[in-house]
Amino acid sequence: MDHVSVLKSDVEKLLDLKKGEIVVDATLGLGGHAMMLLKNIGKTGKLVAFEQDERNLKEAKKRIKEFAKGETKNVFYISDNFRYLKKRITEIGIKKIDAILFDLGLSSPHIDDSNRGFSFLNDGPLDMRFDERNSLTAEVVVNEWKEEDLARIFYEYGEEKYARKIAREICSHRKTEKFTSTLQLATFIEVAVCGGVGKKWREKIHPATRVFQALRIAVNDELKALSDALDQAAEMLNIGGRIAVISYHSLEDRIVKQFFKKLEQPQVSMQESIYRNHGDSIFEPITRKPVVPTDEEIAQNRRSRSAKLRVYKKVRELPQS
């Protein structure tokens, strides 16, 4: 399936970029959103693009070069996780930014390439790494982590109600046979949850779906990376600048909502409350409710169906700690 950028027109409208601004695409992927961002900031603007997947980065560079007709002197590519946002941006001499976009979904190659191990639609190795330079894989997690740790991530990261049962069955089975492939694990989970071989699963979502989500989050430390990056983005953003986040499951969306809720209504001490501005909003929501894809967009791109876009505007600097 060709990669289609999710909610691109909504992102463009709500970020409201101007010529000459400095914008960060924290999740470059194949470059779909980045090309739109470049169009809006023009040749006088700067685009900083983070992508930890070397294959995606190589393809995105090629696409953006073709789009910009070779004029990419104002594009800075960073092959790293966005959790190192501040360090890597300041290294290239940029101290403040005007906008930043996080698109937290999987890119098409992650899903379509069975060798990456993100999907069990086709058989592949239990990998799930965005950054293949890292050593931790899903195979290591499944075969080496303790039962209580597996149960915890299945419950917390996958919101899986059978977390303990699945973890217990996996740990029992791996004593005699290691898990090495996506279909092997998915089939095993289906049998374990359904209560035996030949029993049919009657719900819409395959019983391995939430476990695979949990494994991917654990392998890539996604939730902590997002929290780290939001902290840094809020600090580096200019007053009047905007942050846009597209999330695809409730865990990500909850982190975003809670992070900005604290900045919309900052808590202050009794001493600070003497000064009127201490309790003033640092960020204001541009989107009171999340923007979701239209039926038409979902029909064109099924992978967009769970997307939620939230956009916030910085109105005051963060208090100095």
Helical coverage, percent range: 40-55%
Strand order of the largest sheet: 3-2-1-4-5-7-6
Give the name of the CATH architecture of the largest domain.
Answer: 3-Layer(aba) Sandwich
Rg result: 21 Å
The description of the largest β-sheet is: 7 strands, mixed
Q: What's the order of the H and E elements?
A: HEHEHEHEHHHHHHHEHEHE
The fraction of residues assigned to DSSP E strands is 5-15%
Notes on the structure:
- It is a single chain.
- The chain is α/β, with parallel strands linked by helices and about 325 residues long.
- The protein has 2 domains: about 10-110 and about 225-315, Vaccinia Virus protein VP39 (Rossmann fold, 3-Layer(aba) Sandwich); about 120-220, DNA polymerase, domain 1 (Orthogonal Bundle), CATH 1.10.150.
- Helices cover about 40% and strands about 15% of the residues.
- The chain has 13 helices and 7 strands.
- The chain has a 7-stranded mixed sheet, sandwiched between helices.
- Helix 2 links the parallel strand 1 (about 20-25) and strand 2.
- The longest helix has 15 residues, at about 220-235.
- The chain is globular, with a radius of gyration of 21 Å.
- About 40% of the residues are buried.
Short description:
This protein has 321 residues and is of the alpha/beta class.
SSE diagram, text form:
Layout: H1 8-15, E1 22-25, H2 32-41, E2 46-50, H3 54-67, E3 75-78, H4 85-91, E4 97-103, H5 108-112, H6 138-144, H7 147-156, H8 163-173, H9 182-194, H10 209-220, H11 222-236, E5 237-247, H12 250-264, E6 283-285, H13 295-300, E7 308-314
Parallel strand pairs: 1-2, 1-4, 2-3, 4-5
Antiparallel strand pairs: 5-7, 6-7
Helix pairs in contact: 7-8, 7-10, 8-9, 11-12
